[in-house]
Structure formats: structure tokens, C-alpha cells
């Protein structure tokens, strides 16, 4: 056993952990990082990058076929092998040499193995060969272990070895029939991707399609999936699952109907990767989400920081927002606040302060790369009302903008602006339509900056672009 001391020890070398480490060393502290799998984490190998690579080729082909002139130049179908090959390249063929080298280049030592908190500020790392290294932190330990796919207690499901998001994204072959339990982001994106790749897809969406978004979002995405041939079964619930001798899967619904498929994807949510992290040594429950304050310091049941506040958690593991970009946002705040506390500098943890992750509650942007795309930021109308805001909802047909008719024939889309009537600022914005992903950041800036509607009249959208919807929404609102 060897023992080494650093200013900060980070457990988890995904994008969140990497960003924490980067901010710490930029601030003059030393940091070590622990990783039991691949450096770069879920996003790099099984989520953000490879999933979008699976989706992009078909999206580009659809876009070409929606524009006369380009449509006539498209003479073939999607090359599935090329799509999977491009996916592999974006996943770095599931090798992490590049990201491990980056850690070395910024002066952050990597300890490969399973990290476990053994006492205050002490992390024991067990390598694959059984050797143990003890890392002691002078100031803080940061947990950035992320989340894993949740597999529910459905009779026979675990024994049937279903796909989770990992197996689906890394699939070497496209199944002839794919069943999906779930109707959220992973479910709808993978239904889009695999139907484009040639699978016959059945989606069992017990709670609806993208049911946490504005209602029109799920309606449009479900309609599009059905147009692709996907069987979207809203309200359908799996009662039991069986893996058959021939390798196929049979799903029996609670109403007795049976659905057969070659593979089954379970995409109903996430669970924290805290099962064997040593949380019991600090009075917390193994396998539980970690509750944090706005500076990502872990707090106990009394909402007070544990001990003298040496334990932090950023990213999925704290359940604030399970999105990579928000986890990296939290990571920047964590790294900077630890540096400030170590150096005795002021901590800016008030609303929109440098060390507070205010956007987690007020301005979370998200894109769902379905067909059509969904881009949103801030609160839905229902969430704004539930928060006690006096709101006005303004809707506009994206197809009515001049830019949409140039963008694609038969363009269909919708925009919604949610306005806080007392402050006259936007608190929520949702777009659904072809290629709307790149439009969401303007709304993010408007919400974070709390730009008054009167000032937004002076943000003139370029003509002819789909962004002209901003002017049309303001006109619909009335000056």
C-alpha cells in the first residue's frame, strides 16, 4: 500500500471530474483523479457524442431530401456500416488514451481503480490487480461518479439481460426488431436512430412521450415517430419479460398482450453511482443521491455541510440536473469555490454568483435530437405556474417565418415563450422543428440575463432566418 497527499482528490474522471481538476490546477492547487472505467466517462463513450453520431447521418439525409435540387442529388440510402463506423470514431473505439494523456498534460495524476472513501478526506483506490493506494486530501474530496441506467423491478427483466443505453449505443449490429421501455430522451432518440437504421421499433411509453416537456413537444415527436413506422404505445406497461431460447425477447404487457423483439432497450431513468463509495463512513446511505448546496458541497439530512465541509459532489450524482453541460457548469463552480475557500478569498454564492449553480434551477438548456429536434431552456408553462409565477404563454408557428420556407419544403415547427408578467422577462422557451438546436442559446442568454421584453425589441433578428420567430413572438405578446 502506498499513500500520497494532494490538495483535492476527485473520484470519477468523466467530463465533470475532468473540469473540476482543470479549474483546481488553474487555481494553483494540486489534484488527483480516480477512475475505474474509461477516462472521459459516460458522455464520451456511451451517451452524448456517440448517440449524436448515430443520429446525425440520417438527419443530414432527411435535410437534403427536403430541399429541391439537393433532393435529386441523393441517389442512395443510409450506409449503416458507415454510420456505425463514424459512431465508433466518436467513441474513440472505446479507448481513453487521448483523454488520459490530457490529464497528464495539465498535471493531474490518474489513479486507475475503484475509489472508496474510508474516512474524512481519505480515499482508498483498489486497482485491477488488487493493489491499494491511499490518497489523502488536504482540503476536499469531490465525487463525480455520475449515474447508471435504472433497471426497474419488472418480473424477469434482469434475467432477460436487456440493453441499457450503453449496449444500445455500442451495438455492433442493428436488430431487426427493437422494443423500448420508456418515452423520455434516451427512448425517443434511440427510437429515431434505430428506425432510421432499419429496425422495426416498438416504444412502450407508459407515461407518454417526452412528458416533462411542453405538451406539444411530445405530440409532434410521437407523430413523427409514427410516420417513420415506429409503434408508439402510450400508456402501455410491461408486466413481465422473458429471454427466449432463440435469443429473442418476449414482453408481456399488464393487459396480457405479448410483444416480441430481437432486443429490448430499457430507458426509464438513472440511478446514482454511489453504491460502493464508502458513504456510510460519513453518515450517508450507499446507493443514494448526494444532496448539495448551491456550491455543490454535500449536506446531511439537516441541510448542513458534513463535518467542516470537505465533501463535494458535482454532475449527475447530485441529481440537480442530469445533463453533461450542467455537470460541467457545476464543475467550474466547484473548482473555483474550493480554490477560493483554500485561499481565503470571498465566496460568491448568492444568486448568479460565480460559485453558485443558479442556472440549475432557472435556465437549463436541453436539446433532444429527435426528428423534429426539440430545444428548450428554463421553465415550462406548467412548471412556472407551479413555482407561483404569474405568467403569460405566447405561441408561434415556426413554419410562418420566411426562413423556414427556405430551410426546407414542408417545414413544420412550433415555438413557445413563457413570460413572467410581474418582471416582464422570459422564464421559459421551447422550440420544436428541424435544426432548432442551434437557436436555443439565444433564449438561454435572454433568460440568464433577465433581459426585459422592452429591450428585446432592439435585438433585431436577421432576415430571412428562422430566428425571426423572436420578433413574431414579441409582436404576438404586444408591446
UniProtKB/TrEMBL annotation:
It comes from the Bacteria. The keyword DNA repair does not apply. Residues 6-328 form the FAD/NAD(P)-binding domain. The keyword NAD applies. Keywords: FAD, Flavoprotein, NAD. Its cofactor is FAD. Residues 364-470 form the Pyridine nucleotide-disulphide oxidoreductase dimerisation domain. Belongs to the class-I pyridine nucleotide-disulfide oxidoreductase family. This is NAD(P)/FAD-dependent oxidoreductase. It comes from Kribbella lupini.
Amino acid at each position: 500500500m502506498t499513500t500520497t497527499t494532494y490538495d483535492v482528490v476527485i473520484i470519477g474522471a468523466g467530463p465533470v471530474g475532468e473540469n473540476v481538476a482543470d479549474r483546481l490546477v488553474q487555481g494553483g492547487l494540486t489534484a488527483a483523479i480516480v477512475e475505474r472505467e474509461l477516462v472521459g466517462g459516460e458522455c464520451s463513450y456511451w451517451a452524448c457524442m456517440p448517440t449524436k453520431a448515430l443520429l446525425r447521418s440520417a438527419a443530414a439525409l432527411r435535410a437534403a431530401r427536403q430541399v429541391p435540387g439537393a433532393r435529386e442529388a441523393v441517389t442512395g440510402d443510409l450506409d449503416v456500416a458507415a454510420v456505425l463506423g463514424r459512431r465508433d470514431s466518436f467513441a474513440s473505439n472505446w479507448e481513453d488514451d487521448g483523454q488520459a494523456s490530457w490529464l497528464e498534460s495539465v498535471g493531474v495524476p490518474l489513479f486507475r481503480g475503484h475509489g472508496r472513501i474510508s474516512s474524512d478526506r481519505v480515499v482508498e483506490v483498489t486497482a485491477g490487480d488488487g493493489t491499494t493506494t491511499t490518497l489523502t486530501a488536504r482540503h476536499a474530496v469531490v465525487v463525480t461518479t455520475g449515474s447508471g441506467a435504472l433497471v426497474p423491478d419488472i418480473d424477469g427483466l434482469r434475467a432477460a439481460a436487456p440493453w441499457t443505453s450503453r449496449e444500445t449505443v455500442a451495438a455492433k449490429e442493428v436488430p431487426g426488431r427493437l422494443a423500448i421501455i420508456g418515452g423520455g430522451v434516451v427512448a425517443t432518440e434511440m427510437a429515431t436512430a434505430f428506425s432510421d437504421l432499419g429496425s422495426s421499433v416498438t416504444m412502450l411509453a407508459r407515461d407518454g412521450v417526452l412528458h416533462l416537456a411542453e405538451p406539444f413537444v411530445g405530440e409532434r415527436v410521437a407523430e413523427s415517430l409514427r410516420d417513420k413506422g415506429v409503434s408508439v404505445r402510450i400508456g402501455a406497461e410491461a408486466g413481465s419479460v422473458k429471454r427466449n431460447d432463440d435469443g429473442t425477447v418476449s414482453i408481456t404487457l399488464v393487459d396480457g398482450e405479448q410483444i416480441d423483439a430481437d432486443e429490448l432497450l430499457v430507458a426509464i431513468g438513472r440511478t446514482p453511482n454511489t453504491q460502493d463509495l464508502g458513504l456510510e463512513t460519513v453518515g450517508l446511505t450507499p446507493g443514494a443521491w448526494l444532496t448539495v448546496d448551491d456550491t455543490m458541497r454535500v449536506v446531511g439530512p439537516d441541510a448542513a455541510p458534513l463535518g467542516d465541509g470537505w465533501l463535494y459532489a458535482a454532475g449527475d450524482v447530485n441529481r440537480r440536473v442530469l445533463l453533461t453541460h450542467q455537470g460541467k457548469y457545476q464543475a467550474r463552480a466547484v473548482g473555483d469555490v474550493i480554490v477560493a475557500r483554500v485561499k481565503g478569498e470571498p465566496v460568491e454564492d448568492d444568486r448568479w454568483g460565480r460559485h453558485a449553480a443558479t442556472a440549475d434551477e432557472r435556465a437549463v438548456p436541453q436539446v433532444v435530437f429527435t426528428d423534429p429536434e426539440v430545444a428548450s431552456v428554463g421553465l415550462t408553462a406548467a412548471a412556472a405556474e407551479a413555482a407561483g409565477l404569474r405568467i403569460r404563454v405566447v405561441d408561434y408557428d415556426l413554419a410562418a417565418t420566411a426562413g423556414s420556407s427556405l430551410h426546407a419544403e414542408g417545414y413544420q415547427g412550433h415555438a413557445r415563450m413563457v413570460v413572467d408578467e410581474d418582471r416582464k422577462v422570459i422564464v421559459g422557451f421551447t422550440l420544436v422543428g428541424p435544426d432548432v438546436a442551434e437557436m436555443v442559446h439565444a433564449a438561454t442568454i435572454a433568460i440568464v440575463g433577465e433581459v426585459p421584453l422592452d429591450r428585446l425589441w432592439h435585438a433585431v433578428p436577421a432576415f430571412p432566418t428562422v430566428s425571426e420567430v423572436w420578433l413574431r413572438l414579441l409582436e404576438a405578446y404586444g408591446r
